[in-house]
Automatic annotation (TrEMBL):
This is IDEAL domain-containing protein. Residues 38-74 form the IDEAL domain. It holds the Pfam family IDEAL. Signal peptide: none annotated.
Length: 80
């Protein structure tokens, strides 16, 4: 059975040139997994930073109840 190949256009940031790559089904799957892992990591870092900023704001406002609530959220987020 012949494998289907798809073309992906990749843009480099430095020279703004287009490159066309033909990927096999296995390579396409690998690219999708890598993209998914990258996006997952970026979402994790964004949410971690957001919670951290909220914790700092609660400290600045001297809101002890909010601080403890956010600390529990932060700990649960890091364990997951």
């Amino acid at each position: 059975m012949k494998r289907l190949k798809r073309e992906y256009n990749i843009i480099t940031n430095t020279q703004h040139k287009f490159f066309s790559y033909k990927l096999t089904k296995d390579q396409e799957f690998s690219l999708q997994i890598q993209a998914s892992l990258f996006l997952d990591e970026q979402c994790f870092l964004f949410n971690k930073k957001r919670i951290d900023e909220q914790v700092n704001k609660a400290l600045m406002d001297r809101n002890e109840e909010r601080f403890h609530e956010l600390c529990q959220t932060y700990e649960a987020y890091l364990k997951a």
